[in-house]
Amino acid sequence: MFIFNPLWTIFILLMGGYIAKLIGVLKQKQSRTLLDFAVTFTIPCLIFDGIYHLQLDMTLTLLILTGLLSSLFAGMIAVSVGYLASFSRSTLISMFLLSSFGNTLFIGIPVIVGIYDTSFIGKVVFYDALATALPFSLLAPFILSLGGNQPLSLFQNLKRIMIFPPFIALTLGFLCKVIELPDFIFGPIRALGNATTAVALFAIGLGLGFGTIKNSYKSATIVILCKTLITPFLFIGILKIFNVEFSSNSIIAILESSMPTMALAGAMIIRAKLDSNLAVSAIAFGILFSFVSIPLLCSILL
Fold first, then answer.
1. What whole-number distance in Å separates Cα of residue 165 and Cα of residue 45?
2. Cα dihedral angle (60, 64, 65, 68), rounded to 10 degrees?
3. Partner of 207 for a Cys bridge, out of 31, 37, 219, 239, CB 3.0 to 4.6 A?
4. Full 3-state SS string of 210-271
5. 251, 94 Cβ separation under 8 angstroms
6. Which of 216, 5, 235 is nearest to 94 (CA)?
């Protein structure tokens, strides 16, 4: 029952945004405004607070990198299956991005906090930074360029990373760890950071659409299964091979690796004019399927 509360919170926030769109209170295009607010203000505050107070250790870092490798390998599995199914090049490229990068922050935080407590938010933020945000920022432009619609520019890619507000917050969080900041500074920072989950999930719900699944149900099914089940089971297999103890750190990393498709990955695929139907379907139904996959993993791990 402990997993019910975070999943119920996620469901209500998502459906709140979706219903607001259906009844005309808000428009779907306003989802972008809310996500921009989250990316520019609330997420940087959450990241800075989490990283500044996080006690880093090499074991956690190695677990996060293992999660990243598991995710990338699951992405390659998805592409291999898609290739055997004779999917188009644009679909294969889209499948790799959607299978390799998950919603480790917006969905991950309420799940981990629901299982443990708020003191673990810093670890979720660190996982997102090291296994999602940074590798996605570095790899996505190059991968999208394989579709022929996105120009390849290392300089532009690095520039986008350097001015990306979450990356700036991540850097400042590490730099400020060498000094002791007075606690009152974190009052407004935490107030904004605490709004991240509600704003982001409501915005994702506002942007959800279910009309495209009929055109991409095969590729979407492959992506969802690889992202939410194949990745964590690969992760578990690696830990078993090396006889790694299943501590809270390893369980958090496994659950984070199983999070459904990253919303930003879908947005970039749509912007690059690749398989837009697959992107929308993988995000919408991946979130719904996580209500099955996350309790399944929790029953195995806990």
1. 10
2. 170
3. 31
4. CCCHHHHHHHHHHHHHHHHHHHHHHHHHHHHHCCCCCCHHHHHHHHHHCCCECHHHHHHHHH
5. no
6. 216
Name residue, tokens 């673990």. Answer: 120
- Token look-up 């992107």 returns 279
Return the structure tokens found at 259: 């999070």
Instruction: Indicate the burial class of 136 (C-beta count within 10 angstroms; 0-12, 13-18, 19 or more).
Output: buried
Q: Look up residue 244 and give its two tokens.
A: 């790694």
Q: State the residue for tokens 């609330």.
A: 42
User: Do residues 154 and 160 make contact, with C-beta atoms less than 8 angstroms apart?
Assistant: no
Strand partners, 102: 261
Inter-residue contact 260 to 228 (CB < 8 Å): yes
DSSP-assigned states of every residue in 121-176:
HHHHHHHHIIIIIHHHHHHHHHHHHTTTSS---HHHHHHHHHT-HHHHHHHHHHHG
pTM: 0.84
Q: For each of the chain's 302 residues, which pLDDT tens digit applies?
A: 467 778 888 889 889 999 999 999 999 888 878 888 888 898 889 888 888 888 777 899 999 999 999 999 999 999 999 999 999 999 999 999 999 999 898 789 889 988 888 788 889 988 988 898 778 877 887 787 777 555 556 677 677 777 878 888 888 988 999 999 999 999 999 999 888 888 888 887 887 777 666 778 899 999 999 999 999 999 999 999 999 989 999 999 999 999 999 877 887 787 778 888 898 889 888 988 998 999 999 999 98
